[in-house]
Amino acid sequence: MAPTVPLAVLALVALVAPGLGVAPGCDYPAHRWCSSRDAAVACQVESSCPSLPRPAAAPVELGLYYESLCPACREFLVMELFSTWLLLPEEMLDITLVPYGNAQERNVSGRLDFECQHGPEECLGNMIEACLMHEAKNFSTYFPVIFCLESGSSVTKNLEACLQIYAPELDSGRIAACVQGDTGVALMHRNAQLTEALDPPHQYVPWITVNGKHTSELQAQAQASLLGLVCQLYQGEKPEACGGSKAPKIPAGCRR
């Protein structure tokens, strides 16, 4: 059954000469004006058709370029990013994680090697998280595990425990094989390329992009209240979680 046309629209019809639509190009009879969005647009009565589904809004795209052992990176990921992701509907926020940061890529005897700001342990942590993402594929599967690693006592030693809690279906052996083999190196090379391609070039980590852009203002807003920033930028219907948020102290970043 077609949606009921509001009384206001029917009253408008009564004022229109017989056989004419409410707008040029409206070829629909009055009882069909609210039957679809195309009909409502053609007849210029969208605002009078409350039963029409709203067009989906694009998610806010957030990119986090970080290091696994950088204190400021860990604080942002744990305190801001993960909590915001939990509070908001999935369609509001699209997150890309790139663990690499201020690392350096070198070719040693024909094989790629990586030197990280916080030492070999950080390079291992970066690769574990890159391989975890590669094996899990689904963001909602691997992000809680990364949260567990970054909020725990050791990013590199707690993988098994974090998998048991958040993603027991994942095979830790496959992740270990990735870390120890060519796949892990290839993943880190890709993260190096993504990081080096940033425009403007990153100067510190965490380095945050919002809808593909980085500015000092966006960075400061994201670190102060990511929830508030996403709620402000999202063009769709706002959920209850967007009612308000407090701004925590912004931690100092890890400069190059």
From TrEMBL:
Quaternary assembly: Dimer; disulfide-linked.
Name one process (GO BP) from the record. immune system process
Q: Which UniProt keywords apply?
A: Disulfide bond, Glycoprotein, Immunity, Lysosome, Oxidoreductase, Redox-active center, Secreted, Signal
Annotated family: Belongs to the GILT family.
Q: Name one GO molecular function term.
A: oxidoreductase activity, acting on a sulfur group of donors, disulfide as acceptor
- What PANTHER family does the annotation carry? GAMMA-INTERFERON INDUCIBLE LYSOSOMAL THIOL REDUCTASE GILT, GAMMA-INTERFERON-INDUCIBLE LYSOSOMAL THIOL REDUCTASE
What InterPro entries does this protein's entry cite? Interferon-induced_GILT
Q: Does the keyword Repeat apply?
A: no
Q: Which gene encodes it?
A: Ifi30
- Name the source's superkingdom: Eukaryota
User: Where does the record locate the signal sequence feature?
Assistant: 1-21
Q: What is this protein called?
A: Gamma-interferon-inducible lysosomal thiol reductase
Functional description taken from the UniProt entry: Lysosomal thiol reductase that can reduce protein disulfide bonds. Facilitates the complete unfolding of proteins destined for lysosomal degradation. Plays an important role in antigen processing.
Give the UniProt subcellular location, in the record's own words.
Secreted; Lysosome
**GO CC list:** extracellular region; lysosome
Its EC number is 1.8.-.-
